[in-house]
Amino acid sequence: MDKNNNEGKKLSFYQLITDEKLNIEIPIIQRDYAQGRKAATSIRNQFVNALFDSLEKKSSLHLDFVYGNVKESKLIPLDGQQRLTTLFLLHWFLAIKEKKFDHFQEFMLDGRRSKFTYETRLSSREFCNELVNHKIELSKDFPTYEKYIKNCNWYFTTWDRDPTIQSMLVMLDTFRELYNKLDSENSLYDQLIDFENPTITFQFLKLKDF
């Protein structure tokens, strides 16, 4: 990063994890994940459609600034939490749909811990860990991620009271519904992890540089 300016560095989620070698830890002071709230259906669908449209057409989508503190190889975001969470879930979802889950785990796991996590609640943190550790294939008996995951032996019923987890489940099923409507021969996952020409990016700014 050029420390003579305060414009930050243009990155993808994948580049932030792999090239910058940063884990992402949503701090306690941040609110719960809100983009998956059922009350936010219109805004959520609009955003997810923009993400898929960008990937399908290989057209750039820039998501403005993400900034925060970096401490011991951890990014603690103060702005960009919602977008980063959605991108984390999108990588997980597309990796499963396009048979790239081994690759996803390779760059998103630190041992058995997810490199993306929430510190707001223990349940949110554990859910992120479990999600990265499990490849989920839907079936006729469990056609939605909400139904499937809530039936898993690693899912605790007490997590039903965690609004971040519930919003994540809603977002995953939003991905599922909109992805099924696509007619694309492109690998959307490959677009996400393209190092040379990443499709979805943001402007990463360390607070100390600002």
Question: How would you characterize this protein structure?
Answer:
- By secondary structure, the protein is an alpha/beta fold.
- It has eight helices and eight strands.
- It has helices at 13-18, 41-57, 81-97, 101-108, 122-133, 145-150, 163-179, 188-192, and strands at residues 9-11, 23-26, 61-71, 74-79, 109-110, 113-114, 116-118, 200-206.
- Strands 1-8-3-4-2-7 form a six-stranded mixed beta sheet. A two-stranded antiparallel ribbon has the order 5-6.
- Strand 5 (109-110) and strand 6 form a beta hairpin.
- The longest helix is centred in the first third of the chain and has 17 residues, at 41-57.
- The chain is globular and about 50 Å long.
Question: Secondary-structure map with pairings?
Answer:
Blueprint: E1 9-11, H1 13-18, E2 23-26, H2 41-57, E3 61-71, E4 74-79, H3 81-97, H4 101-108, E5 109-110, E6 113-114, E7 116-118, H5 122-133, H6 145-150, H7 163-179, H8 188-192, E8 200-206
Parallel strand pairs: 2-4, 2-7, 3-8
Antiparallel strand pairs: 1-8, 3-4, 5-6
Helix pairs in contact: 2-7, 3-4, 3-7
